[in-house]
Amino acid sequence: MDLGHKPGLGAPCLKCKEKCAGFELHFWRKICRNCKCGQEDHDILLSNDEDQKVGRLFEHTEYTNIITKLKSEGMPMFKHNVMAMTNPCTAEKKFFNTGSYEWAPPVQRQELARNYMAKEKLSLSGSWATQYLKKQLSKQLPAHDQDPSKCHELSPNEVREMEQFIKKYKNEALGVGAMKHLSEVNDQGDKVQNPARVRNTTSALSSKEKSTEPKKTQYSCYCCKQPIKEGDTAIYAERAGYNKLWHPSCFICSTCGELLVHMIYFWKNGKLYCGRHYCDSEKPRCAGCDELIFSKEYTQAENQNWHLKHFSCFDCDKILAGKIYVMVNDKPVCKPCYMKNHAVKCQECQSVIDPELQRVTYNNFSWHASSECFLCSCCRKCLFGQKFMPVNGLVFCSMECKKMMS
Asked: What kind and span of H or E run contains 268?
C-alpha cells in the first residue's frame, strides 16, 4: 500500500528545527522525505486521526460499552472531548481560573482530574505538553499496529495473521485504567476481595473482649511499593485485578517508563505495557518501516529486525543485501551515499575518507591513518602510532614544534 504524500505542508520540523519544503510522507518509511523526521515531529494538526485511532483500537472489544457509557455521561475520555477545568484563585475563592485541557482522565469529578493533571506531564492546551501528548500517542499506539490497511504491502496471509493478532490482544491484554479516590476503591473492593491489601491492623484485644474498632486496610502501589494513603488518588487496571493499585505517576509502561497516554494499557505477565512495547514483546518489528513483521522470512542486522526489502539505504532506498554499508546515526547507508553525503574529509589531503580505510579521529577532526596524511603540522614527521599534541585541527609531535607554529 502506498501511504501517499502530502505536498505543500510547509510545517516546521520541531525536531531538527528546519522548515521543510513541504511535508511529504515517505512511501513506506514513517518519516518525512525532506527532513527524515517523523510526522509527529511536524507542526501538523491531525486531531481527527487521533480520535479515529483511539476509537478503532476499542472497536469490537469488551470496552466498547464502557466507553459509550462514559461519553453519554459527559465524562471526557479522549482528546477533543476537551475538558474545561476550573481552579479557585488563592486570593479570593469566589473567582475561578478556567482552562481547557487537551485530555483529562475519564472521571466525573473534576477534583480527581484536576489533581491528576496538576501532577503529570499533561497541561493546558497550547503548552509544550500538547506536543508531548501528540508524540507519545503516536509512539505508544502506532496506527500500523492496529490496522492492516495502514501497513505497506502485506500479503493476504499476513493480513489474516495480523487481524488474528489484533483480536487476540484486544481480548487478552488491552484495557483502560480507572481513577478513583482510595475510599471509593475500598467501596468497590468490598465486593471483590479488598484491593491491594498489605496487612490489617486492629487495636489491641483484651483477654476478655474483642475490639469494636473497625479494621484499617493499608495499601501500597504495585509499581513503587510505597503506601497509598486514605483519600489519595489511585489507579487500578481491570486486567490486573482489583488487588493491584498504582499511584497516577506510577501508571507507566514497564519498558519505556513513560506515562500511559489516555491511561490505555496492555497487561502481560504481571506488567503494564504501552501498545508499542506490548506488541514488541509478541512480534519482531521492522527497523525500517516500524511495522510488526508477520512474514516468515526476515533478516536480522545491527541487532535489529528488518523486512527483507526494507534493509535498505536510508538515503536512496537501495536494498543492501550483500552490499557494503555504513551505519550513520543508527541507520544503514550504502557506500556511495556515505561517500557523497556523510564521509569526513582528511585534514591533511582534504579528500573524503573511505569507510573501509583506517582513520585517526580526534574531536571533530579526522585524518587518513597513513604516513602521507597523519603528519606533524610543523616538521612533517609521521605521527601514525606515535604520541601527538592536537591544537585546533593541527597536530604536533612535540612542544617545540607547537611553539614554532604559534
From this structure: strand 264-268
Q: How many domains does the chain have?
A: 2
Q: Which of 332, 279, 335, 329 is nearest to 302 (CA)?
A: 332
Output the CA–CA distances (angstroms, integers) from residue 118 to 32, 110, 221, 249, 292, in the order listed.
Answer: 34, 12, 20, 11, 36
Domain membership of residue 119 (yes or no) is no
State the DSSP H helix or E strand holding residue 325, giving kind and residue range, or none if neither. Answer: strand 325-328
In a domain, 21, yes or no: yes
pLDDT in tens, 337-371: 999 999 999 998 999 999 999 989 888 899 998 88
The share of the chain scoring above pLDDT 90, in percent, equals 42
Residue 394 lies in domain: 345-404
Output the DSSP codes for 88-104.
E-SS-TTSEEEEEES--
Domain CATH code at residue 382: 2.10.110.10
In whole angstroms, give the CA distance from residue 204 to residue 230: 22
Q: What is the pTM of this model?
A: 0.76
C-alpha cell, 245: 493499585
